[in-house]
Amino acid sequence: MNLIIFGPPGAGKGTQSNNIINSFDLKQVSTGDLLRSEIKIQTDLGKKIESIINNGELVSDDVVNTLIGKIISDPKNFNRLIFDGYPRTIPQVYSLEKLLEEFNQKISIVFNLNVDKDIVSKRANGRVICTKCLRIFNVYLNPPNLKNHKCEKKHLEKRTDDNSKTILNRYETYVAKTKPILDYYSKKGILFEVDGNQKIVKIYDKIKGILENIRD
Ligand code: AP5
Ligand code: MG
């Protein structure tokens, strides 16, 4: 089963994807994470896209479609992907569809995390990520402590695009270019709306229930 986890910046796509992969034999693919690792090791691509990401705009469809193509064509990933933050434009939707068809797969379900603008902004502003264990925390809402996080504090980092100005741009880009693609999945009858304003566990309970029903 392949699925998409959809929602505005800071909605909880990464957090819920992590929860899902802990209970289901699925693999998360975050185009944001893939692009940030290109920037971290300063590849040619990383150098080109750094300012785009830091301004909260979208990287070109060709670039992300190529990254996703490599993942879908890998037999290890057959029919077990969670797309987090992809697709984000109509051309990306069609490219994903074509690629999946080529490799005899499809999207079974799309979860849309509905979260209010002021809440996503607070979530993104307070986010810290452990570069060692890759867990996502929030200094206001879900702070790392001795119980929930075993790595040293020095590994905790803020994302460079998690500042008020870029968060606003990311949100506006989402509304203008990404939100409209929901219609496509709604018409296919595979879109599930989830109230993402709730607590992390409550949201996950809902997602888990739906996934267990599909699997049965
Ligand atoms: P990307 O990395 O995908 O960023 P995003 O879409 O802005 O989403 P985030 O990762 O910020 O949020 P999230 O929904 O994963 O939330 P999280 O779980 O971390 O993309 C970054 C950039 O890359 C884009 O702006 C673009 O430039 C480029 N890009 C990426 N994909 C692209 C594509 N396909 N095409 C073109 N360009 C692309 O949670 C956020 C915080 O909230 C955390 O601190 C977490 O602890 C907390 N939290 C989560 N859920 C809850 C809850 N229920 N209650 C309280 N706190 C919560
Ligand atoms: Mg994310």
Return the string of H and E elements: EHEHHHEHEHEEEHHEH
Bound molecules: BIS(adenosine)-5'-pentaphosphate, magnesium ion
Sheet with the most strands, sense and barrel status: 5 strands, parallel
N-to-C terminal Cα separation, in Å? 12 Å
Adjacency order of strands in the biggest sheet: 2-3-1-4-8
CA gyration radius, whole angstroms = 17 Å
Number of helical regions: 9
Topology of helices and strands:
Elements: E1 2-6, H1 13-23, E2 27-30, H2 31-40, H3 44-55, H4 61-72, E3 81-84, H5 90-102, E4 107-114, H6 117-126, E5 127-130, E6 136-138, E7 156-157, H7 164-178, H8 182-188, E8 191-195, H9 200-215
Parallel strand pairs: 1-3, 1-4, 2-3, 4-8
Antiparallel strand pairs: 5-6, 5-7
Helix pairs in contact: 1-9, 2-3, 4-5, 6-7
The structure holds BIS(adenosine)-5'-pentaphosphate (AP5) and magnesium ion.
List the keywords.
globular, 216 residues, 5-stranded parallel beta sheet, 3-stranded antiparallel beta sheet, binds BIS(adenosine)-5'-pentaphosphate, 8 strands, alpha/beta, single chain, binds magnesium ion
What's the quick description here?
The chain has 216 residues and is of the alpha/beta class. It has 9 helices and 8 strands. It binds BIS(adenosine)-5'-pentaphosphate (AP5) and magnesium ion.
Describe what this molecule looks like in 3D.
Strands 2-3-1-4-8 form a five-stranded parallel beta sheet, sandwiched between helices. The longest helix is centred in the last third of the chain and has 16 residues, at 200-215. Helices cover 49% and strands 16% of the residues. The mean pLDDT is 96. The protein has helices spanning 13-23, 31-40, 44-55, 61-72, 90-102, 117-126, 164-178, 182-188, 200-215; strands spanning 2-6, 27-30, 81-84, 107-114, 127-130, 136-138, 156-157, 191-195. It binds BIS(adenosine)-5'-pentaphosphate and magnesium ion. BIS(adenosine)-5'-pentaphosphate (AP5) is lined by residues 7, 9-15, 30-32, 35, 52-53, 56-59, 64, 85-86, 88, 92, 123-124, 126-127, 136-138, 141-142, 170, 199-200, 203.
